Amino acid sequence: MDTTRYEAAASGPALGVVIAVVGGLVLAGALVWAVRLGIKVKQREPRAPRGGEHPTLPDSGPAHETRQRREPDEVPSAEETGRRLNPHELGASGSRRSDDQSRPRWEDGSSGSFGSG
Length: 117
Known about the structure:
By secondary structure, the chain is mainly alpha-helical. It is about 40% helix and about 5% strand. Strands 1-2 form a two-stranded antiparallel sheet.
């Protein structure tokens, strides 16, 4: 009895299964390698402050910070100009530096909120 044809027919699907299993193992190995590489890269990065940790100011003080009071630029009304202004005619900023740079304070005896006394 000649079984060569039967052996050849049976080896085709078996070879496909072996190739699928080996391909799956290679893919799983590549994914594990990529995750480990990502963890190593993440560990080399500087970490952000965690809960309860706050960054501190340098001895020289805050960098590039200015405190100033601003006051709004007055927009002329339509009665003054005789026409309505377009947005490009308003200018870049809606405020300017105030001449009085003192901090505003609450009046004595005032509660500081509306309607509470």
